[in-house]
Design brief:
With 728 residues, the chain is an alpha+beta fold. It is built from 28 helices and 17 strands. Helix 13 runs parallel beside helix 19 and helix 18 packs across helix 19. The radius of gyration is 29 Å and the shape is globular. Bound molecules: adenosine-5'-diphosphate and magnesium ion. Magnesium ion binds next to loops.
C-alpha cells in the first residue's frame, strides 16, 4: 500500500500518544513457553528423559519408542498451554527461518476427531521443499527434502504453535540449511577440544562452543516505513538526503531511550523471556533510531536458534507497536549501519572457560593453548572466515570505516602480545629447570586473571580478544550466526587436531614432558601466525597497505569473498571435519551468489521505479511551478523581470541538470542490468551485477539527494531522513 508522505507523518504522530502497558516479572516468566529441563522432568519418563539428555550430551540417537514418549509428553504439555498446532522450525538457506504448521488434530476411522502427535511427526516432517534454495542439490540428487528433530535445542510454543527446532536435509543426506553444518562443526570442535583439554584435566568429557551475540537494529515508524517503497522492498533507503543533525553530537549512544521505544522493548523482552531467550542488555546505539539487544551467552547452537527466534519475535512485536524493525546492515546513508558482534569461546563440562586465564600457571598454559590455537586457526583460514559474513547488504559495512574492514586480523592487546613475545623466545626442545621456572613464574604465571579492562580498547578490530572470549565484529545484523559459527568452530577443530598430533609426537618421539611439548608447538604457532595479529587502527589506509604486504586477503565484495569457499584447502577442511561435502559447499556457494544477484537486481528495479515514478515527476512538477512563476513575472514586468527571476532561473537550471543526470544514469543502470541478465555463469553474473550495476546506485543517489534539497518540501514524495529518524 502506498501512502503520501504527509498522511504517514500524521499517522506516526498519533501513534506517539498511544500508551502500551508494561507487565510481568522477568524471572517468573523465564522459559514459560519452552519444553525445557524442568518440563522434561515433569512430563517424561525417566527412560525418555535420560535418552534425550544423552542425545544432547553426546549426540546419541533417540529410538522410535522413546521418540513416541517424548512426542506424547510434548503434546500433553503444549495442549495444556493452549497450543493447537505444531511445526518443524528450520533454517533454509534463504537466511530466514521457515515453518509449516500442522494441527494436532486427526480423524479416527470411526469419524471422530482426536489430538494426535506421535514420534514419527516429532522426528521427521516433509515440508514441500521445492521452493527453498538448494543450489541444485535437489535437481541432481533427490527431489524431496525432510526436516529432522534437533533434540539439542528445546521445543517452544510461539503463539498457539509448538515449534520443534529441526535440521533440513535432502533425502540423500545433503544439508539444505544452516543448522546441519553448524551441528557438525560443533561436534568436530567438541571432540577436538575435549582431547586437548584432557592434557590439563582428565575429567573433561565435553567442550561446548559458546556464543553471545549482540543484535543491532533500527526502528522506524510503521506508517513512515510504508511510505517508502525502498524500505519495504529492499530494507534500506536508496535515496535520502542526510538530516541536518545525524549522529555527530553523539547524543543518541547510551542516551535516554524514547518512551515509545521502551514500551516496545519491554514487550519484546517479555516475549523473549517466555521463550527462554536470556535477554539482558538494551541500549541506544550510535545512530538515531538505532538500538541494541544482547542476551547472556549460551551454547552456540542454542544461541543461534535464539537469535533467529529473536529476529522473528522482534518483527512481530514491532508491528504491534506500529514500528518496522530494520535488520539491514545499512538502512541509511551517512549514519552508522548495524552489525551483530559474535562473542565466542569454548567451555568444558567441568565449568571452565578455556579462553579465560586462570590463577595458576597450569590453568594459564591451558588458556594459552586455546588462545594461540585460535590465532593460528584464524591465520590459516582468514579468507574463509571472512567469506562467512559476506552478503550484499553487509558489503555496505565491511571496510566502510564504521565496521571492521574486510581484512581479517586479530587484536590481543599489549599485555598478551608481551606474553606471546616472551613465549616466542623459548628455546627449542627440552627446557632446563631454570627455563621452566622462569616460564611458569614470569610468563605464564603472570597473566592476570582479569584482562577485561585492558583488552577491549580497539573497536576497529574485526576479531578481538576481550578478556575471556574472542569477539567477531564483522558479522552483519541480518546474518544467520550459524554461518560464521560453522566456519569458526570447524577451523578451530581442524587446528586443535593438528596441535594435538604435534604435541603427541614430541612427547612420544622426543621424550618431552607435556608442558615442554605444548610450549614448543605454541612457540612455532606464535612465530608462524604473526601476520594475523594487528593492534593498530583497522580503518586506516596504512593498514590496508600493510595487510597487503602480509598477504592477508582483502575481499571487498561478496562475489569476490565467496570464491574461497570452493578452494582446495576449504573443501579439504570441510570434508576432513565432516562439516560439508563438496556437493554441499558448491551448492551453498551457488545459493549465496544467487542471493547476491537477486538482491542487487531488486534494488535496481526499485530504484528505477522510485526515480521514474516519484522523484522525476515531483521534480518536474516543481520545475513547472517555477517556470510558470518566471513566465508570470515576465508578463507583469516585461524586460525588467530578468533581475527578479534570477533565483528561480538558477533553480530551474539546477533541477534540469540533475534530472538529466538521474535519467541518464538510471537508463544506463537498466542497460547494465539487462546485459548482466544474459549471463548464464552464475559467478560471472554476480560479478557483473557487482561491478557494472551496483556502482550506479551511489551516482543516481547523489543527484536524487540534490533534487530533494531543491524541490518544494510540500511536493517531495519520499519521507525524509529527518522525519524517519527521530522517534520521540
Ligand atoms: P560490548 O561488546 O558491547 O562491549 P560486552 O563485551 O559486554 O559488550 O559483550 C558482552 C557479550 O559477550 C554478551 O552478549 C555476553 O553474553 C557475551 N559473552 C560473555 N562471556 C562469553 C563467553 N564465555 N562466551 C561467549 N560469549 C560471551
Ligand atoms: Mg561487542
Amino acid at each position: 500500500m502506498s501512502r503520501t508522505r504527509f498522511d504517514a507523518i500524521a499517522e506516526s504522530h498519533k501513534r506517539n500518544r498511544i500508551n502500551i502497558e508494561e507487565k510481568g516479572r522477568r524471572s517468573e516468566l523465564f522459559g514459560q513457553n519452552v519444553f525445557n529441563e524442568e518440563r522434561m522432568l515433569q512430563y517424561l519418563t525417566k527412560e525418555a528423559h535420560s535418552s534425550v539428555k544423552a542425545a544432547i550430551f553426546s549426540g546419541s540417537k533417540i529410538d522410535r519408542k522413546i521418540a513416541d514418549q517424548v512426542a506424547e509428553a510434548m503434546k500433553t504439555w503444549a495442549i495444556s498451554m493452549g497450543a493447537t498446532h505444531y511445526t518443524h522450525w528450520f533454517q533454509p538457506l534463504t537466511g530466514a527461518t521457515a515453518e509449516k504448521h500442522d494441527a494436532f488434530f486427526d480423524l479416527l476411522p470411526n469419524g471422530k476427531g482426536m489430538e494426535k502427535f506421535g514420534g514419527g511427526q516429532l522426528v521427521q516432517q516433509e515440508p514441500d521443499a521445492s521452493s527453498f534454495p538448494s543450489g541444485g542439490i535437489r535437481n541432481t540428487f533427490e527431489a524431496r527434502g525432510y526436516t529432522a528433530w534437533d533434540p539439542t535445542s528445546p521445543a517452544f510454543i510461539y503463539g498457539t504453535t509448538l515449534c520443534i527446532p529441526t535440521i533440513f536435509v535432502s533425502y540423500t543426506g545433503e544439508a539444505l540449511d544452516n543448522k546441519a553444518p553448524l551441528l557438525r562443526a560443533l561436534h568436530a570442535v567438541d571432540e577436538a577440544a575435549t582431547a586437548v583439554a584432557k592434557y590439563f584435566d582428565k575429567n573433561v568429557t565435553k567442550v561446548n562452543a559458546t556464543l553471545g551475540w549482540e543484535q543491532e537494529y533500527f526502528l522506524v515508524d510503521k506508517a513512515l516505513a510504508h511510505s517508502r517503497p525502498d524500505i519495504i522492498m529492499t530494507g534500506r533507503t536508496l535515496s535520502g538526503h542526510s538530516a541536518a543533525k545525524g549522529q555527530q553530537l553523539d547524543d543518541h549512544y547510551f542516551g535516554v531511550i524514547p518512551n515509545r521505544v521502551i514500551r516496545f522493548m519491554s514487550d519484546l523482552e517479555q516475549e523473549c523471556t517466555k521463550l527462554g531467550i536470556p535477554v539482558k542488555t538494551r541500549h541506544n546505539e550510535v545512530a538515531p533510531n538505532q538500538f541494541e539487544l544482547a542476551p547472556v551467552f549460551e551454547e552456540a547452537n542454542l544461541a543461534v536458534d535464539h537469535n533467529l527466534l529473536l529476529m522473528d519475535v522482534m518483527e512481530k512485536v514491532a508491528d504491534k507497536h506500529s514500528f518496522k524493525v530494520l535488520f539491514h546492515e545499512k538502512p541509511f546513508a551517512g549514519i552508522n549501519g548495524s552489525g551483530k558482534h559474535n562473542n565466542w569461546s569454548l567451555a568444558t563440562d567441568t565449568g571452565v572457560n578455556l579462553l579465560s586465564p586462570g590463577s595458576t600457571p597450569m590453568k594459564n598454559l591451558q588458556f594459552l593453548t586455546f588462545f594461540v590455537n585460535t590465532i593460528k586457526a584464524v591465520d590459516t583460514y582468514e579468507e574463509l572466515l571472512r567469506s562467512s559474513i559476506a552478503s550484499a547488504s553487509n558489503d555496505h559495512r565491511l571496510g566502510a570505516n564504521e565496521a571492521p574492514p574486510a581484512i581479517l586480523s586479530i587484536f590481543i592487546g599489549a599485555q598478551l602480545s608481551d606474553v606471546l613475545d616472551e613465549l616466542e623466545g623459548v628455546s627449542q626442545g627440552k627446557l632446563s629447570p631454570q627455563e621452566k621456572t622462569e616460564l611458569k613464574l614470569n610468563v605464564v604465571g603472570k597473566i592476570p586473571e582479569i584482562l577485561l579492562d585492558n583488552t577491549d580498547r580497539n573497536r576497529t578490530s574485526p576479531f578481538a580478544f576481550t578478556g575471556n572470549k574472542f569477539e567477531m565484529r564483522g558479522v552483519g545484523s541480518k546474518t544467520n550466526c550459524a554461518k560464521p559459527m560453522t566456519i569458526l568452530n570447524a577451523i578451530m577443530a581442524k587446528q586443535l587436531i593438528a596441535f594435538k598430533k604435534e604435541v603427541d609426537i614430541l612427547m612420544d618421539k622426543k621424550n618431552l614432558k607435556k608442558d615442554e611439548a605444548v610450549f614448543n608447538v605454541l612457540r612455532e604457532y606464535i612465530k608462524t601466525s604473526k601476520r594475523i595479529r594487528f593492534d593498530g587502527d583497522g580503518y586506516s589506509t596504512e593498514w590496508e597497505k600493510e595487510a597487503k604486504r602480509r598477504k592477508l586477503s582483502n575481499n571487498k565484495n561478496t562475489p569476490e569473498a565467496l570464491q574461497v569457499l570452493t578452494s582446495k584447502a576449504s573443501l579439504e577442511l570441510f570434508k576432513s571435519m565432516d562439516v560439508m561435502s563438496e556437493v554441499e559447499v558448491k551448492a551453498r556457494q551457488e545459493v549465496e551468489l544467487e542471493a547476491y544477484i537477486f538482491h542487487i537486481q531488486i534494488e535496481g528495479r526499485v530504484f528505477n521505479e522510485i526515480v521514474n515514478n516519484h522523484i522525476l515527476p515531483s521534480s518536474i512538477a516543481y520545475q513547472n511551478k517555477l517556470i510558470d512563476n518566471v513566465t508570470g513575472l515576465k508578463e507583469i514586468f516585461g524586460a525588467a523581470h530578468k533581475k527578479l527571476s534570477d533565483g528561480q532561473l538558477t533553480i530551474i537550471e539546477q533541477i534540469a541538470e540533475h534530472i538529466a543526470e538521474v535519467k541518464k544514469k538510471v537508463d544506463a543502470m537498466t542497460d547494465a542490468r539487462k546485459s548482466a541478465n544474459t549471463i548464464t555463469n552464475i559467478d560471472k553474473k554476480a560479478r557483473a551485477y557487482c561491478d557494472n550495476v551496483r556502482p550506479y546506485f551511489d551516482e543516481i543517489r547523489y543527484h536524487c539527494d540534490k533534487l530533494e534539497q531543491l524541490v518544494d518540501n510540500q511536493i517531495w514524495p519520499l519521507t525524509k531522513y529527518r522525519e524517519l529518524l527521530f522517534i520521540k
